[in-house]
Amino acid sequence: MNKRRQSTLFLSVWLPLFAAAMFIAYVRPWLAQGLGGERVLRASAGVRGGRNQWWVFDEATRTAHPLRTALLSLSDVQIGAIALGVVAVLLLWRWYHRRRV
């Protein structure tokens, strides 16, 4: 694999997944704490025993900050699905662009 293909593969796959993981782990809790959100945890009853979290806000906070609270109200699984969707779109774009060149 040449250097350019490696860098585009890195940008297409690993960068969106890393950004989503950092957003879930660090940015979301910090933003939710600043807005006074209440964290909701749901533990999975599956074999792996994962957990899912999101935040809920009172009506005054939701009306004052509609975009932030909507983003923080998404669960971890939904953000992960969005990140995988971004990876799929980037890989399709990369494949299509390589075929045209």
TrEMBL record:
Superkingdom of this protein's organism: Bacteria
TM helices/strands, residue ranges: 7-27, 77-96
Alphabetically ordered keywords of this record: Membrane, Transmembrane, Transmembrane helix
Protein name (Swiss-Prot/TrEMBL): Uncharacterized protein
Source species: Vitreoscilla massiliensis
